[in-house]
Amino acid sequence: xxxxxxxxxxxxxxxxxxxxxxxxxxxxxxxxxxxxxxxxxxxxxxxxxxxxxxxxxxxxxxxxxxxxxxxxxxxxxxxxxxxxxxxxxxxxxxxxxxxxxxxxxxxxxxxx
Amino acid sequence: xxxxxxxxxxxxxxxxxxxxxxxxxxxxxxxxxxxxxxxxxxxxxxxxxxxxxxxxxxxxxxxxxxxxxxxxxxxxxxxxxxxxxxxxxxxxxxxxxxxxxxxxxxxxxxxxxxxxxx
Lengths: 112, 118
Fold this sequence. Notes:
The structure holds two protein chains of two kinds.
Chain A (H helix, E strand, L loop, with lengths): L4 E3 L2 E4 L5 E6 L6 E8 L3 E9 L2 E5 L6 E5 L5 E5 L8 E8 L7 E2 L3 E5 L1
Parallel strand pairs in A: 2-11
Antiparallel strand pairs in A: 1-3, 3-8, 4-5, 4-9, 5-6, 7-8, 9-10, 9-11
Chain B lengths: L2 E3 L4 E5 L4 E3 L2 E3 L5 E8 L6 E7 L6 E3 L2 E6 L4 E6 L8 E9 L9 E3 L3 E6 L1
Parallel strand pairs in B: 2-12
Antiparallel strand pairs in B: 1-4, 3-9, 5-6, 5-10, 7-8, 8-9, 10-11, 10-12
């Protein structure tokens, strides 16, 4: 158990819908990262927050957004969902920006 | 831009055999970190090791060992006397720790699926 929690574990929804994925980092960790794992793209970095501030964006679609709250938990919002958004979404956290990232169990999203 | 290549897509070994998973990386930066993560069938990503670019010493942890060679930009992972529980997908990743494009994010290889047959 890495100490990073993600909810929900599974999510099934329909095209066009909007979902919110939630992540609670390890106690004391200030950095939160979101990654997407799909069969065709592999593991890809989406976005990074540090102590509430957005620090870097990767291959994140405009339909996706995220934020980190004052209590350091983070949410990833996915809207206007398409079939291709079906994937495993991981959250990771680290104590500072340069330290090892520990991953949560992931949220498996299926868009029908 | 940085890149990580894991040329072996799938490997099958018989239990107790040794197996080496290859990882080759590309970066123009001199300061970076290399990682290995394990993804068992249950799906979570488990951290195994982190090395920084200035430390080329090989590392051993039980049945696991890692060989880092900057001259060939490789960071290979060997499992000695493999066990069924080692069956998983293994990912090599590169991390740049500076304030610039591509920094503070893991760049992953495509992964190597290891199957250990009893």
